[in-house]
Amino acid sequence: MIPHPPQLKGFEVRHLKTLRFVANAPFLGDISFQNLLDLILFSTTAIAPFDLFWMVRMVKVKAWALPILGSAATVSVIFDGSTAGSQGDRDFHTDTSMGIEPAFVNAAPKERTLASMFQVSSAASAFFLDVPTGAVVDVTLEFHSDVIAHAPVAAQNASVASVVGAIGFRGLDGVALAATKFNVPAGLNQI
Q1: Residues in a beta bridge with 182
Q2: Whose CA is closest to 109, among 137, 128, 83?
Q3: Number of folded domains in the chain?
Q4: Has residue 5 been placed in a domain?
């Protein structure tokens, strides 16, 4: 007897990755799921990047900030998102440094909260972030591709002179290279 072919699953592409950003200006505001999905883009023209992945979920956020001599530095993270049927945990994660040891926050959303579940591109807040200039922010995310051919999702902001067919990275705020408050590591194709 010849057995039938085994069941297959997992055709989608999953990508669990920690991405690093350095704040080139103070930032106080929400990071949306659209911002997170705009972190890794595919350029179809010099000005039209598209999200490489269809869904994303938060795993954790780490932030470090070192104060200027004689002052203090504070970093804060809140998973404050809210959509119908799902909320953030609203826990306030913060640390302040007044010395040579940096302020440090290591925060993860609670299970079954908005940021902990896969989300498609939307303006809903994944988390609130407050960091000073020079802060280092790591976000650990799990990305998930689409396998049923939904229309591709365009990045919220156009790029300038992007290389067609190339993968590019964008700052944590979803803004194009010229205006972002978050730089990606040197050597990456930032668009």
Answers
A1: 23
A2: 128
A3: 1
A4: no
Cross-strand bridge partners of residue 42:
50, 167
**pLDDT score, position 107:** 97
Residue pair 94/107 in contact by the 8 Å Cβ criterion: no
Place 181 in a pLDDT band, splitting at 50, 70 and 90: very high
CA distance 184 to 19: 8
CATH of the domain at 47: 2.60.120.220
Tens digits of residue pLDDT in 142-151: 999 988 878 8
Residue 97 in any domain: the answer is yes
CA-CA distance, 39 to 61, in Å (whole number)?
15
First to last CA, the chain: 56
5 neighbors 137 (Cβ within 8 angstroms): no
Flag whether 190 is in a domain: no
CB atoms within 10 A of CB 52: 19
Q: Name the band, by pLDDT with cuts 50, 70 and 90, for residue 84.
A: low
119: its two tokens: 């989300």
Residue at 52 is within a domain:
yes
Range of the domain at 165: 15-183
pLDDT tens figures, 53-80: 999 999 999 999 999 888 999 999 999 9
